[in-house]
Specification:
alpha/beta; seven-stranded mixed beta sheet
């Protein structure tokens, strides 16, 4: 489908924080990263966020899902139309529900509709085949994280932590020749990250997040709530493992009686300690934890992680990467892997029995 060599691919990501659509170009052959290209962002308005929130936890055909899907497609088309010279696009869609042991996974948005609007092939539905073969369907960025570790010249084990609505981490041994090598990667969701805190801030103060951790600084961590959170069976399950955005939805209720400051401090600590607990599963300690996602901009959350990790904890910008666009770049990279028949998930990332590819490729109707 694609010529050999380096491809200019566009990737998008609309995460569980529901803030907007990230779009980014990379040039890659699906194995190595050559360079990074242009970036774009399309924010969701408060009204649009309300449409998406109303559809969370719902499956195709249920109330509000069609409206959410139409919004997702329109928002993505708007931001993706601003990129020229792209040979392929990766469209993740908006995750509304994720139940790998039951109903599967649901990302709203139709890749065929986008292919027709943009006039380029679109790779989408990245997660379903993994689940069909017994995997968790998430996380999918580890193949890209392995390529990034090579790109930045890492030589010792390093971990990439994404602090989005849910936290996920990839442990990488860059001394391995390939992501397919035994012991090259281990990946899993750490636990809730920004989602409970963002929901609290919207409910209590009408703002989408705790800017600079200011509200958390007003209060104290409630040890009883935090300790009860850390006793959850999730932290004792061996990886790979994945979460839905609302799997810890009871956490909000546990801080309902606390002041704004105490509630924010407690939820921030919960996100941080989930990361610290995740390190117990690393095959070997890491020399550095590189953080992407919105949580890296919360200095209180970052400090809480740094105090307990026992290694350097830095935003990915410290090694010249773009933490706002890393997941969008990942889906550009994965799109090229799908188009070239390369695996996108692995036993130690999603729990799938063997390395498999995923994703569906939709071609513009006029080219058929």
């Amino acid at each position: 489908m694609l010529k050999s060599g380096i491809i200019r691919a566009l990737g998008t990501m609309s995460g569980t924080s529901l803030d907007g659509v990230d779009a980014a170009v990379i040039e890659t052959d699906g194995v190595e990263i050559l360079r990074f290209g242009e970036i774009g962002y399309r924010t969701y308005s408060a009204d649009e966020q309300a449409v998406l929130r109303a559809a969370l936890g719902r499956w195709p055909g249920q109330p509000g899902v069609a409206e959410a899907a139409a919004l997702v497609e329109q928002a993505h088309a708007e931001v993706m139309a601003g990129f020229a010279g792209v040979a392929l696009a990766g469209f993740h869609g908006q995750t509304l529900a994720h139940d790998p042991g039951g109903r599967g996974t649901h990302q709203a948005g139709d890749g065929q509709a986008l292919a027709d609007k943009l006039g380029v092939p679109v790779v989408w539905d990245f997660r379903s085949s993994d689940i069909q073969f017994g995997g968790q369907g998430a996380p999918l960025a580890p193949a890209y994280h392995f390529a990034l570790a090579k790109f930045i010249g890492a030589t010792e084990p390093v971990a990439f932590l994404n602090l989005g609505g849910v936290g996920n981490v990839t442990w990488v041994d860059p001394s391995k020749e390939s992501v397919l090598a035994d012991g090259a990667v281990l990946a899993f969701d750490t636990g809730p990250a920004n989602a409970p805190l963002n929901d609290l801030m919207m409910a209590r103060r009408g703002v989408p997040f705790d800017a600079d951790g200011a509200t958390a600084l007003e209060g104290l961590v409630n040890g009883e709530v935090l300790n009860r959170f850390l006793e959850h069976g999730w932290f004792f399950r061996m990886p790979p493992k994945s979460l839905d955005r609302d799997d810890f939805s009871d956490l909000g209720g546990q801080v309902a009686a606390l002041s704004d400051g105490d509630a924010a401090a407690t939820l921030t600590a919960a996100a941080a300690m989930a990361v610290v607990r995740s390190a117990e599963h690393f095959p070997t300690p890491v020399t550095r934890l590189l953080v992407t996602g919105g949580g890296r901009q919360n200095p209180v959350m970052m400090e809480m992680i740094s105090e307990r990790m026992g290694c350097s904890v830095d935003p990915v910008e410290a090694v010249g990467l773009n933490g706002d666009m890393l997941e969008a770049q990942a889906f550009a990279y994965l799109a090229v892997r799908v188009a070239r028949g390369l695996p996108t998930s692995f036993p130690m990332t999603t729990g799938v029995p063997a390395a498999i590819g995923g994703g569906e490729i939709s071609y513009p109707s006029q080219s058929e």
